[in-house]
């Protein structure tokens, strides 16, 4: 059983460069998990939310669009043990600007489908409280 898990982990590291980048950076893994949880907060992953997510991955993290599906699969397989509170906790000691970027990205995803569901607002509000940032920080300057 352990050998099977090790071979799966090795395949991840030897495979897609976007997955390697995420696998080697626990903070990045946590950030992408939080962003993906925002996509799922209203129960529906829309095309517009996924497009914004892919754009954020490319522009902010250097993860090419063709790697995003593999990154999501990796996080689905190996990130399931990380809950939202644990992911947010990784950001509490990060510089303020990095925490604001996370909040902005979450807000961009929430607004992508032009509908703000109560669960999206609640997730964003709670995340910002835990990060110690004001609601205005979720708006691009």
Automatic annotation (TrEMBL):
Transmembrane segments: none annotated. It comes from the Bacteria. This is TerB family tellurite resistance protein. Pfam families: TerB (PF05099). It comes from Oryzicola mucosus. InterPro entries: DjlA_N (IPR007791), TerB-like (IPR029024). Residues 32-137 form the Co-chaperone DjlA N-terminal domain.
């Amino acid at each position: 059983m352990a050998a099977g898990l090790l071979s799966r982990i090795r395949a991840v590291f030897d495979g897609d460069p976007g997955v390697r980048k995420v696998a080697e950076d626990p903070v990045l893994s946590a950030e992408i998990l939080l962003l993906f949880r925002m996509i799922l907060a209203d129960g529906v992953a829309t095309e517009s939310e996924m497009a914004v997510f892919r754009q954020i991955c490319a522009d902010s993290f250097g993860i090419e669009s063709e790697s995003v599906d593999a990154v999501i699969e990796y996080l689905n397989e190996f990130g399931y043990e990380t809950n939202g509170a644990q992911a947010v906790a990784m950001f509490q000691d990060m510089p303020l600007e990095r925490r604001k970027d996370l909040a902005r990205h979450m807000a961009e995803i929430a607004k992508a489908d032009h509908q703000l569901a109560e669960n999206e607002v609640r997730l964003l509000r709670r995340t910002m409280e835990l990060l110690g940032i004001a609601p205005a920080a979720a708006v691009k300057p």
